[in-house]
Design brief:
The structure is a homodimer. Chain A is of the alpha/beta class. Chain A has three domains: 55 residues, lambda repressor-like DNA-binding domains (434 Repressor (Amino-terminal Domain)); 129 residues, 3-Layer(aba) Sandwich (Rossmann fold), CATH 3.40.50; 130 residues, Response regulator (Rossmann fold, 3-Layer(aba) Sandwich). Helix content of chain A is 43%, strand content 14%. Chain A contains 13 helices and eleven strands. Chain A has a five-stranded parallel sheet, sandwiched between helices. In chain A, strands 7-6-8-9 form a four-stranded parallel sheet, sandwiched between helices. In chain A, strands 10-11 form a two-stranded antiparallel ribbon. In chain A, strand 1, helix 5 and strand 2 form a beta-alpha-beta unit. In chain A, helix 1 crosses helix 2 and helix 5 packs across helix 13. The longest helix of chain A is centred in the middle third of the chain and has 16 residues. Chain A is elongated, with a radius of gyration of 26 Å. Strand 2 of chain A pairs antiparallel with strand 2 of chain B. The structure holds a DNA duplex.
DNA sequence: ATGAAAGCGCTAACAC
DNA sequence: GTGTTAGCGCTTTCAT
């Protein structure tokens, strides 16, 4: 059943065959199919003949030949950098939403401290992409890897665009980002509206995006005239284990009535720690996350209030920016708006 | 800062340049670089000269030219079929783990009922892949789409391999699957060990993998001599909303002391419903899921006992099988073992 | 042991 | 308006 490998017909219908059938030259066929005047328009008659022949033969241009001739692969390379549990598929769909209508497809390469950089470099150097989309997490230790990607891209003359997670500007031409600051500010402000005053921040060190979220936290406190308590700002490594441990510790050492965690993953770990410490959520401690991983956040106990992170839209925008750079058009970047998704961990009633 | 588009050097170091430097012909360079006797070996001297020249010039073969000449793209197409919230990155990493060492890279294309099939077909027909990896969910309504992929692959002579989620055999040469039946049987058996007798199954209709998980449930009951209560077998559409609603309903209409949900996502929704109905987990109702989405399952309240779904390994295996098919080698398929991850929702103490 | 040359399928000057 | 032609960078048969 599984043995007999499929016969390999490799039905390459070529331009030449169409030319034969339509009684024209390869060149004419190419022009018709690519809709390129040369410099004169093609007569409607031959146009039609060619189209019909192509249709009949089920012609599909060979991508390799096209790429070789034009020097463009119609492919972008999406580098997933140190990405493990995030919503890759939403980003991918967003990117495709923009790319596919323009005929581009996506090659992916995952990279982390141990794997993939050299292969990724290989892909770039071998001409398999017209531009690069970087997504994932750049930590200080892994920055050299980013540099490699950046350098290879530069020697090939390819633009690099960041998708979410605000990459440092030395490594990208531009980045498609969401309004981390504004979103966080809204979240923390919401906690303040609920009468919370001692709000802890569960943050992440050394990450631009996390820094922005921290800034939003500070803004909200400032606007409400609440002094920042440095002891309630805790920066870690983004892991759930860390978030759990540090929250547990905090319950023993400090007074606080709310937590703003810069990711949902951290928020749910913190929530578990609060419960382990005998605190009720949201009565004793309210909590808000960030990202809205809906299939988790909706079903925590209580359901997690959080900020919607529009990965799909970010993907679309990043793709748009990349294509613009490839075509030397204006970038068209903007900070994507985010919005609070109110559930119950903040203290709101159902 | 973001305006001046990067200059485009496009440093294509070619075979010819190496040939020049090394004082040999293109052909010789090609042979050396590809390690291909012709039919006689290359002399060590020229070999070295060529290698050094290549090294010095920083030569990287042009993928398009190579593909055009050989008819092989060294690329596989990964089709993500109706996949939204699953762990794509783990599969991807697994696939890459096997593919990259062999020089293959991955092109991705997401497809669902509304989008992407025609583009996916395009990618296949334009020779942009040597084989296809199918992953995601095939529902009866979307099967025609699968058929399209399959047909295009066939006309191009490309093998199609399924990665997880057991695709129907008409659409794939083979599939890399996990032992759904065995895993589920273990899970349900574990519940039985805890003294549970009225175990509800939260399943999914029309999905081979879900059917296997149901079979495991039945096996466990059979071995324990517990009669199957058809009313406790509930098949739905895999959505969390459905799982939540149906569980809530069940608490009102039936007696049961445990739930086996065929996915973690359904399990956490069910858990929320149980709590909403005033049931304690696991005292009143134990619950076990499937997949081990660790960043969720570890932090539910109580932590979710579940079956580890080795997506990474499945990715590796699928990639291996696909490459074997491409090279006409024996398939090397096997059912991947799964294991129970015991936490507390089953009734075990910490 | 190495080189010459044809060709993979397509594009883009340029000629007619 | 359409055809000719010369590549794009690489592989591969065959001749030497």
């Amino acid at each position: 059943m599984t043995s007999g490998n499929p016969q390999k017909p490799k039905r390459h219908v070529t331009l030449l065959q169409i030319a034969d059938v339509a009684q024209v030259s390869k060149a004419t066929v190419s022009m018709v199919l690519n809709d390129r005047p040369n410099p004169f328009p093609i007569s409607e008659a031959t146009r039609k003949r060619v189209m019909e022949a192509a249709q009949k033969l089920g012609y599909r241009p060979n991508a390799a030949a096209k790429a070789l001739a034009t020097g463009r692969s119609l492919t972008i390379l999406m580098v997933a950098f140190d990405l493990w549990d995030e919503n890759l598929i939403a980003r991918l769909r967003g990117v495709e939403a923009h790319l596919v209508p323009k005929g581009y497809s996506i090659r992916v390469c995952t990279v982390d401290a141990e794997h993939g950089v050299s292969f990724c470099a290989e892909l770039i150097r071998s001409g398999q992409a017209d531009g690069i989309l970087l997504t994932g997490l750049a930590s200080p230790q892994t920055l050299p890897i980013l540099k490699t990607v950046r350098d290879e891209a530069t020697t090939m003359g390819l633009p690099v665009v960041g998708l979410a997670n605000a990459f440092p500007s030395e490594y990208v031409e531009a980045t498609a980002d969401i309004d981390d600051t504004r979103g966080s500010q809204e979240a923390v402000d919401h906690l303040i509206q609920h009468g919370r005053r001692k709000i802890a921040l569960l943050g992440v060190a050394d990450q631009p995006w996390a820094h922005n979220r921290e800034q939003g936290y500070r803004n909200a406190l400032a606007e409400a005239g609440i002094p920042v308590d440095p002891e309630l700002i805790i920066l870690g490594d983004r892991s759930q284990t860390w978030a759990y441990d540090v929250t547990l510790e905090l319950t023993r050492s400090h007074e606080f009535d709310a937590i703003f965690a810069v990711t949902d993953n951290m928020a749910i770990a913190a929530m578990a720690a609060l419960k382990a410490a005998g605190k009720r959520v949201p009565e004793d401690c309210a909590i808000i996350g960030f990202d809205n991983n809906a299939h988790i956040a909706r079903f925590t106990d209580p359901p997690l209030t959080t900020i919607e992170n529009p990965f799909y839209d970010a993907g679309k925008m990043a793709a748009g920016m990349l294509l613009n750079l490839i075509d030397n058009k204006p970038l068209g970047a903007e900070l994507l708006p985010v919005s609070l998704v109110v559930r119950q961990s903040c203290g709101c009633k159902h």
